[in-house]
Amino acid sequence: MRQIYRYLIVMLWLTLGSGTYAYAQNAAPLPKSLLWEISGQGLKQPSYLFGTIHAICPENFVLTETVKTKMAQTERLSLEVDMDAPNFMIELQQATVLPEGTTLRSFFEEQDYNRLHNYFMQTMSLDLTQLDRMKPFMLHSMLLSQLTECQAISYEESLMKLAQQQGKEVIGLETVGEQLNAIDQMPASVQISMLTKMVNNMDDARKTYQDMVKLYLQQDLGGLEALSREEYNDEDYHVYEQAFLVNRNKRWIPVMEREARIQPTFFAVGAGHLTGESGLLELLRKRGYTVVPVQ
Fold this sequence. Notes:
It contains 14 helices and six strands. It is α/β, with parallel strands linked by helices.
């Protein structure tokens, strides 16, 4: 079940880029840290916010002792989605299937569809006609192995295992239906455009991913944000950012506040959600919380 979820976290290289251009230009450099302490506003104990990368090759995976220690000091782990929720698979299946009477092929120009069909056949021996009821974003998820060029693992899975070892409850900031609904907010034309660009420029996509992994391992959130700005001349990415990052961040803040008041919580979300004017770090500070890096 978790493996299926991992491949449904789409557009991997983009989930590490967030924020707004103007904010990034004017803000002070961010300390190099993926782990942040949240305190103040009447919290009896601090909670923590950790930026993850949703898929990474095993040889690059690092979970520091500091992260393990701080998680041990909390009572619960909160991921973007609780992957162990009883209705997880039902919501997942419902969210990935096109409405009756709609087909995947209908979203594409014939030339683009043939290009994708040939690419999937050559790289994965997969006939796209077998996926004709699937939503376009499913193709993004299936290209993940082409992007990473390895059998990727996720920080979310590793943190869940650690939480189980520490006897902690795992919760989610949203349901899988809410998460995948964010993708539905993007016009199909934008999803198709991003997909075809990825396939047509796979070498560049791999290079961008490798650069982002390098910055992530250096805990350089500022560098990740700067790298993401290279895509900002493309309107497709503005649409993606608003739907998949900004709107979700704003929806998560009251949930994070509520859960942190109930019990000290270790929040773990994609690193791209942390930075920028509409990132979680800044939104929490605007709510009066003290948010500082943990070295």
